[in-house]
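Can you please make up a whole protein chain along with its backbone structure tokens because I've never seen that pairing?
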Amino acid sequence: MSGLVSFYLAVALLLPVALLLAWGALALLTRLGWPLSARQALRVGRGALALVLLLPLLAMGARALSPAGPLFTFERSVARQAERLPSTVWTGGANVSVPVARGTASVPASIWMLLSLGWLSGAGLFIGRALVRHGRLLSRLEALPRVRSVGRVVVVLGEEGTPAFSAWFPRWGQRPCAWVVVPPALLEDAESLRLTVLHELQHHRQRDTHLALGRLVLTGAFFWHPAAHGLSAWLASLQELACDEALVASGRAQAQAYARCLLQAALRLPGAPPVPAGATGMSHPTQRRIHMLFQPRPRRTHAVPALLAALSLLLLPVAVLAQGAARGRAVTQADAEALARTSQPRGDLPIVVDAKVVEHLNRLVGTDKGRAFMKRALENLGTHRAALTATLRSKGLPEGLLAVAVVESAVTNMPETDGRPSLAPGMRGAGVWMFIPETARRYGLEVSAARDERLDVARETQAASALLSDLHARYGDWRLALAAYNQGEKKVDQALTEGGSRDVTALIAGGHLNDYVATVQAGLLIVRNPHLLD
């Protein structure tokens, strides 16, 4: 649902931009003496509409596939004997709702419900009424006297006072689906009748009648948006000019005779009603149409692809920004610092907010993969938090170290062969705390073909508490201890020597350490502020 809302809002933001850019580009070319033909202008208009619909999808896909670099990696090694290890003795428990900050979701949820109901009511009423009128039009057309048939197109005589128009209906079988309606007065003028029928048949050839239904749905979905109605009216005007141009350019109609036909239609139906919903045609021929017939038709083969390419380059960053605005504002460093400060329990693990922490925080709260991982982690943590915290407290360790289990395994007791993702880089371990065999044995856990105590959560938590306590005693800094938990003491010692600093932020920026510490701190920020996932 959030993806649909994001797509809808992005399209709404792109519609006026695309309309202004396309219209402005055509006007600028005309002013510079390089006008495009009517058919080329129609292709530009349709291409602009296609870009409005496609670019948000591309932005959504790019955001989901590569939000800011790879989110999960699976290159962590699997022990040779892992497939023979026993199954887990504990897994994530029953589904528990993710805790949320009190009062954070009620108001937005109510506003979201009202907006949804308002949109559904408005769009449903608009589209439903138009489709009902379109269906009634089909019944009326089948009752009108038929003049002739051209393939599956039926030419019928309309009622007195109605303009000429075309309509298409999605039907199966041998029943006619395309119609041309001509005024009865044209029976007195054979040439005008021929030209009118040719004009309306050209609408069918250009698929204008098919796209008329698409424009109806678009304007219904964005019934509140002036740009949607403006774009639809502009395309309707362009397709009339394109039909006129196509007939004269092909030689099927002479410019003088065709202009006379347009003038007679204007005099015959000075106050004609509008074209029915879902149909194609203009009730009032304009001076512009007649003037266009006698203008030279420029041939610029590559003008339309070049113009659409330029439009796509201009609209793509707007689509990306629209996606960001629709999906929610990214957490800034100031936001993260405020959250860390206000949610910091006294004496608990401190959070040092830097650019890497903010980057990983936005990956976790702003991407589908990150949100799914953290929601699963918080569900599991909500069930087993008390047992894990009790062991940490018995060792005098801060409760915030639970973020290690969150990042390592989403608080899931799983063997090395489990395919579920981990946010921690490096070798893949087992259990909630993801011990690799060497470290597990060093802290008294049995890892063999017969038994794997890494899957005994109580024993593994005792070992993890001892390891973290030793690392903190060695480095006197929790961020260095966390780096050593993932990369080992040897790597951290080497980083301290080569980096010439004990500042983990500087060591990460210099490439001496990986991003594991930043990921843990971002995870801890979400554990303390679960409403970020709302």
Q: What stands out?
A: The CA atoms of residues 119 and 449 lie 60 Å apart. The chain has 19 helices and five strands.
